[in-house]
């Protein structure tokens, strides 16, 4: 998406929805705008699904721009992608650990787990994450995000949990769910992709357990 197009969509966000840079548009505000494209309803639903990258049932300005860009692409004959292209992912959603973070969190994990273990219990993970000084229910929610089916916490999940805690300490909001690509990176069994008709996916089976501390 060019800067000119992004600016055009951002202006639409401001003028048509009356929202500024930090605003969030609800589905009932956005869908009527997309419906003007006369695209099939299943494609409109899919555009919403793709644009709502953090799955909070509302669109930030960047997400709104992505939605309108997808509409434009589809109207020009381009097929809708199966997932949001990486170049459209919002810059303010930082899911990648720096090298220093990876090394630091990895060392913390191995110190807690010991040399003969490849996973931590969720209780052990919560006790460590509590040192960030955030409320207990935030700590529990972070553990649920990285290990959602009650399984043990491996090193990759532990590192992501620490990154989430750092973001919370920095004032960023708690995400509703992790992006699909992050879930795959963490080895979380993905739920089936929602259908374009909007059918709800079924829950995946529990992940296998590994020895813990």
Structural commentary:
This protein is mainly alpha-helical and 213 residues long. The protein has two domains: 3-88, EF-hand (Recoverin, domain 1), CATH 1.10.238; 99-185, Orthogonal Bundle (Recoverin, domain 1), CATH 1.10.238. Helix content is 49%, strand content 5%. It has helices at 3-17, 27-35, 41-51, 61-75, 99-113, 122-129, 136-146, 155-169, 180-185; strands at 24-26, 58-60, 119-120, 153-154. A two-stranded antiparallel sheet has the order 1-2. The N and C termini lie far apart (48 Å). Residues 39-74 form the EF-hand domain. One of its GO terms (cellular component) is plasma membrane. Pfam families: EH.
Keywords:
213 residues, mainly alpha, Recoverin, domain 1, two-stranded antiparallel sheet, two-stranded antiparallel ribbon, 49% helix, 5% strand, disordered C terminus, EF_Hand_1_Ca_BS, calcium ion binding, calcium, EH_dom
| Helix content percent band | 40-55%
Question: pLDDT average, as an integer?
Answer: 83
How far apart the termini lie comes to 48 Å
User: Would you tell me the structural class of the helices and strands?
Assistant: mainly alpha
What's the total number of strands?
4
């Amino acid at each position: 998406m060019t800067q000119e197009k992004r600016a055009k969509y951002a202006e639409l966000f401001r003028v048509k929805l009356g929202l500024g840079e930090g605003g969030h548009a609800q589905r009932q505000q956005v869908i009527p705008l997309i419906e003007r494209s006369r695209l099939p309803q299943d494609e409109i639903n899919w555009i919403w699904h793709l644009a709502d990258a953090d799955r909070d049932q509302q669109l930030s300005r960047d997400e709104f721009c992505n939605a309108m860009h997808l509409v434009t692409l589809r109207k020009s004959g381009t097929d809708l992608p199966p997932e949001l292209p990486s170049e459209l992912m919002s810059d303010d959603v930082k899911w990648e650990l720096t090298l220093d973070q990876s090394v630091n969190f990895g060392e913390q994990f191995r110190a807690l787990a010991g040399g003969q273990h490849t996973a931590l219990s969720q209780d052990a993970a919560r006790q460590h994450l509590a040192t960030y000084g955030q409320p207990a229910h935030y700590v529990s929610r972070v553990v649920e995000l990285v290990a959602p089916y009650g399984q043990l916490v491996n090193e990759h999940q532990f590192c992501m949990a620490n990154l989430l805690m750092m973001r919370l300490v920095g004032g960023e909001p708690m995400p509703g769910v992790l992006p699909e690509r992050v879930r795959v990176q963490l080895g979380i069994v993905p739920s089936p992709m929602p259908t374009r008709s909007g059918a709800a996916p079924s829950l995946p089976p529990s992940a296998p357990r590994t020895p813990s501390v």
